[in-house]
Every structure is written in C-alpha cells, then in structure tokens.
Design a protein that fits this description.
5 helices; globular; six-stranded antiparallel sheet; 9 strands; about 190 residues; alpha+beta
Amino acid sequence: MTENTEQQHKIQTELKDLGCRLAGLRDACGFEKEEFAERLGIGVQTLSAYEETGFDIPISILMQAARLCEVDMAVLLTGSSTHLNTYQVVRAGKGRVVDRFPGYHFEDLAYNYGGKVMQPLLVTLETSDEPAELVTHGGQEFNYVVAGKVILVFENKEIELDAGDSVYFNPQIPHGQRCGSSQRAVFVTIITD
C-alpha cells in the first residue's frame, strides 16, 4: 500500500468513525432521524449520508448536534469527553488530528476544553490543482493565514490571503479554501455556531 493510499484509507476510516459517533449520539439522546435532521436544519437523506460515511459534515452541524445533545463537540470529533473548563494549553504540533476532507489536515486546538462556544482549528492545505469545494454552514468564521497562500473562494470570487492576512466572514455563503502556493498553506480557523 502506498503512503497516499494509506493516508486516504486512514481518512476514510476516521470519517466513518465520525459518522458512527454522530449516529450513536443521536440514538443515545433519543432522537429519531427525522426529528434530529429537522432540528439540525438538514434533510433526512443528508443526515443518513453523514451517519453512514462521515464525509463532508460541516463543523456547524457537529456543533449543533453536540449542543442539542448537551455534550462537547470533542465527543463527536474524538470519541472522548473533555474535562477542562478553565484553560487548555496545546503545544506546537500537539493538536488533536481531525482529518475530514482529502487535501485538508485539521488539528483541534481546544480538543479537551469543555463547553466551547467556538471551534479553533489549525488547517493545513495540501498543494492541488483542484478547485476549492464550496460548503456552507451556520455561525461565523474567522481565518488567519500562518504560512503560504490561501485562496478563499466565494461562489465566483477568489480572494488571495498571504501569511499574516485574515478574513472574517459569513459561512452561510458558499465558500471554500485551496492552497495558492507551491508549498502547503497553513491557517487558523475559528468557527462559531
């Protein structure tokens, strides 16, 4: 198995685990699929796809599901509960890895902090010629570019962000990010619900 194939298999396994945790949480909280989907503002087929594959679940949906079931989002992302409520220090390179999309590498920067009202993630974008996949989610989003160049895409508009640049935006507008340089791009994103 090549390194790329192993990485893709690992991501698929982690996504499937995420979907199983979402389904398990819904079940443990006593929600039928129809009611849970309605409360999340999505269709039953979409919820079923999320629970079966774990693929493409917006962070805002995970935050809403966690809030509905009164658990920390870390329970969904990692399968373990949080216990800190004063502060959490995450040393460089020690964020909890949450690979959700091919080409994106996420590190949860507050994975052990309970009762979060925002989700901070360190995101690494691999170089790619593929266009950015557009997504939407609730809340608000802030991105700060740490290294490289990030191309933020809003429908037909592209905004180039270099290291040190930031953007705060409404993520209900279809948007996506892609690497705009020959080396990986790294940015911090903070998403609220």
